[in-house]
Description:
18% strand, alpha/beta, Rossmann fold, 5-stranded mixed β-sheet, globular, 8-stranded mixed β-sheet
Amino acid sequence: xxxxxxxxSNAIEILEEHHNMVDTLEWLLINRxxxxxxxxxxSEKDAANDxxxxxxxxxxxxLAKRIAPHAYPVATGILSEYEPEDxxxxxxxxxxxxxxxxxxxxxLASESRWETIAEVSTGAPRIVFFSIKGGVGRSTALAAxxxxxxxxxxxxxxxxxxxxxxxxSSSLLSPERQPKYGITDWLVExxxxxxxxxxxxxxAMSDLPTDGQINFVPAHGKEPGDYVSKLGRVWxxxxxxxxxxxxxxxxxxxxxxxxxSDIKPDVILIDSRAxxxxxxxxxxxxxxxxxxxxxAIQGQQTWxxxxxxxxxxxxxxxxxxxxxxxxxxxxLVPDDERRPEYIAAICTSSYLLFADIYDNVSLGAVSGxxxxxxxxxxPHAPLPIRWNRGWFGLLNLQQRMQQLDxxxxxxxxxxxxxxxxxxxxxxxxx
Length: 430
C-alpha cells in the first residue's frame, strides 16, 4: 500500500522503466486531484493514435498498481487536452527530473498557492511580518516598528491580516478609535459589489505620539459582528457574469492597491498569519511584497517548517524569485548570559536553511547569489530582538505603546529598525 508522499518517487521509477516511450509523447501531465488521486492528461494527438494510446494505458496501469489507492481504474484514469495550458489552468506544477515533457500538477482546495509569486509592487515598499509558528513576538515587533517609522516622520499603512487570530489593533489603536469595519467586512461585501460602502470606514488613524502618521486597517471592526460566518466567506472567489472568477488573494491585493492610492503611504507593513496556510501564502507570495521578515526562535519546529517551505519552492522552481526578498529575524533572544549561545545556535540553523538556496559559487567568481556563513549582511544573518520584560507578557500593549521612548525601542529592536531603514532608503534610490 502506497502513501501520498510516495507518488512522485514511484512515478519516476515507472517512467524510467518506459523511458523510450515517454520521450516520444508530446507532453504528459501527472494530475493529483483534491483527494490525492492521480490521472494522466495527454495531448489529443497522442490520445487519437490507437497504438500510442495503448502504450499510455499500459504506463498508467503500471503506475496505478504501484501507487494504489492513489489512482483510478485505467478506463477513467487518462484524460486528454489539445494544449497543456487547457489542463493546467494557470497552475505551474513542476517538471519531473529526467523528463522535460512530464509535469506534476497539484489541484488544491486553497486558491492561494505558495508557488504563485507576484512581482514586487512598484509603489510603497510592502513588508510582511511572517512566522512559521506563533508566540515569537512578530506582532509586537510590527507595532514597535510602526511607531518607530512614524516617529521618523513616515506615513505608515498597517494591515492586520492575521484574520483568524486578530489583535494588532489593540496595540496601535485606543478603543474609541477602532474603525467600524475591517478587512473581513470588505472581502465579504466585495463579493456582492458592496466593497465601496465600507471602504471609508476601514481605516483608523492611531493617536500614538509621532511626527508621522499611522493608518491602520484591522482584521475586523470595533464590533466584530457575525465574524465566524464572515471569516468562512472571505476566501471565496468573486464570480461575475462574463468574467472569470477572481481569487480572494487578487481581491485582497486590489483592496491594498486602493488603500495605497488613497493614503499614499511611505511604507506598508503587513502582519501575516503564522504557519503554512492560505492567508500566509497570500501575504508572502501574492501581494507584491518587497521584503518578507521571517521570524524564528531556536527550535526544531521552526526550522522544520521553514525547510518544508523552502523545499517546496525549490521543487516548483520558484525559489530564485523569492530568495532575494527574505530576511531572518531572531525573536525572543535572551537578555542574559544565555544570549551568546542562543545567537550562535540560531545563526548556525539559519545558515543551514539558506545554504541550500544559495548558488554554488567557485572561488574567485564574481557572479552568483551567495553569502558566507559569518556575513552579517546576509539574509540568513538573524536580526536579533531582545526579550524584554517591559514588552512581552503585557495585558495592555496599547497603554505600553503610549509610554515609549526611542532609546528603549532602539535597545530591543535596533537591528530590525536599521534593516528597515535600509529597505526604505534603497527604495527611494530606485
